[in-house]
């Protein structure tokens, strides 16, 4: 099973090239050219990771991260930036970003981070499933 990723960036050339490179590595990638489009997509689909550009018009990466986390607190977000600052990185991590990667992104490094995001998502799903089972057993008195 391939990792399922949502790649969000307002630079369409970058988006197309990265999507092609990810597909070549057998990563199931969906693209969005804006944070608003990404927010719409996560309501319809589940992704192992959202790779989100930090600098975008309309809604920047920090605002988009907050909106994504409010819709799904367990979503795994990796921020991409060509303008990384320690302050932005710390702010992003405090808001729940899994990681921050500088552009141009090394696809090997990014693929490893996607695998980690997938593993973390699976652990969270397993934990929630166990909690549901415990709740059902407790309620039913088995």
UniProtKB/TrEMBL annotation:
Pfam families: Response_reg. InterPro entries: Bact_response_regulator (IPR050595), CheY-like_superfamily (IPR011006), Sig_transdc_resp-reg_receiver (IPR001789). Residues 4-118 form the Response regulatory domain. Keywords: Phosphoprotein, Two-component regulatory system. One of its GO terms (biological process) is phosphorelay signal transduction system. The keyword ATP-binding does not apply. The modification 4-aspartylphosphate is found at residue 53. Signal peptide: none annotated. This is Response regulator.
């Amino acid at each position: 099973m391939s990792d399922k990723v949502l790649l969000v960036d307002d630079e369409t050339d970058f988006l197309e090239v990265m999507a092609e490179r990810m597909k070549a590595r057998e990563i199931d990638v969906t693209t969005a050219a804006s944070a608003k489009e990404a927010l719409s997509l996560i309501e319809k689909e589940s992704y192992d990771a959202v790779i989100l550009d930090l600098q975008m018009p309309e809604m920047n990466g920090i605002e988009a991260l907050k909106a994504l986390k409010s819709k799904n607190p367990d979503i795994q977000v990796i921020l991409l930036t060509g303008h990384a600052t320690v302050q932005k990185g710390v702010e992003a991590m405090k808001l729940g970003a899994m990681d921050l990667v500088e552009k141009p992104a090394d696809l090997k490094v990014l693929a490893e981070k996607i695998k980690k995001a997938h593993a973390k998502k699976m652990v969270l799903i397993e934990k929630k499933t166990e909690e549901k089972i415990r709740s059902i057993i407790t309620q039913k008195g088995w």
